[in-house]
Design brief:
The protein is mainly alpha-helical and 209 residues long. It is built from ten helices and two strands, in the order E-E-H-H-H-H-H-H-H-H-H-H. Helix 2 packs across helix 5, helix 5 packs antiparallel against helix 6 and helix 8 packs across helix 9. The radius of gyration is 28 Å and the shape is elongated.
Length: 209
């Protein structure tokens, strides 16, 4: 439960959203994560003097300047002394912004009342509001460099490597001991999925004969 620190009473909008989370998610971790993001929103609102409860309960969502201010506030909190936002914090920032977008859109869907002439037109206008709110938050995402991941070897490639590393095919070039060692490393890697560092950690010194 999120409590107003000055009044020491439950925050109305937060309490409503918590009830929504209880009915929607069985996972306590998921609910806790969503509420943590809501706490970020309330902390920012308190710092800059925004009546967040009124804004959410009226279905207004965030304006673009407000969303930008909130994103800058988060970046400042998580930035290193040299002004750089670490890779892990970039991912956290994006996931937090996405979570806040979900929160704002839920309040819009519950409390926004477009002044449209017909029910059909109101539904359309509400969808426009939700799309606009989603776009406002999405534009704030920071770029994250994708880590390159090697593709899995094909069966043909595995067969070629297997044939090349067989001791009987390499021993004439590097010696039987080295050829056997390399082949064993290969087999452990392909069978158990271990990395080279993990394989080398398995080595045991044999006693001198």
């Amino acid at each position: 439960m999120i409590v107003d620190r000055k009044k020491e009473t439950p925050v109305e909008a937060a309490s409503l959203y918590e009830c929504h989370l209880i009915h929607k998610h069985d996972s306590h971790k998921t609910r806790r994560q969503a509420l943590d993001r809501l706490v970020h929103l309330y902390t920012w609102a308190n710092d800059v003097g925004v009546d967040l409860d009124r804004q959410l309960l009226s279905g207004e969502g965030f304006t673009q300047p407000q969303a930008r201010s909130f994103a800058a506030w988060l970046r400042k909190r998580w930035m290193q002394d040299n002004g750089v936002l670490p890779y892990t914090k970039r991912k956290t920032l994006n996931s937090t912004l996405m979570g806040c977008s979900v929160i704002c859109r839920w309040f819009i869907s519950q409390f926004a009342r477009p002044e449209s002439e017909t029910r059909h037109k109101r539904v359309i206008d509400l969808e426009i509001l939700l799309s606009a709110q989603k776009r406002i938050w999405k534009e704030l995402n920071v770029k994250i460099r994708k880590e390159s991941v090697a593709e899995d070897l094909s069966d043909e490639e595995i067969m070629k490597i297997e044939s090349f590393l067989r001791p009987e095919n390499r021993s004439g070039l590097v010696g039987w001991d080295i050829a056997t060692r390399d082949y064993l490393i290969w087999r452990i890697a392909i069978e158990f999925g271990l990395r080279i560092g993990e394989i080398l950690a398995l080595r045991r010194r044999l006693p001198n004969s």
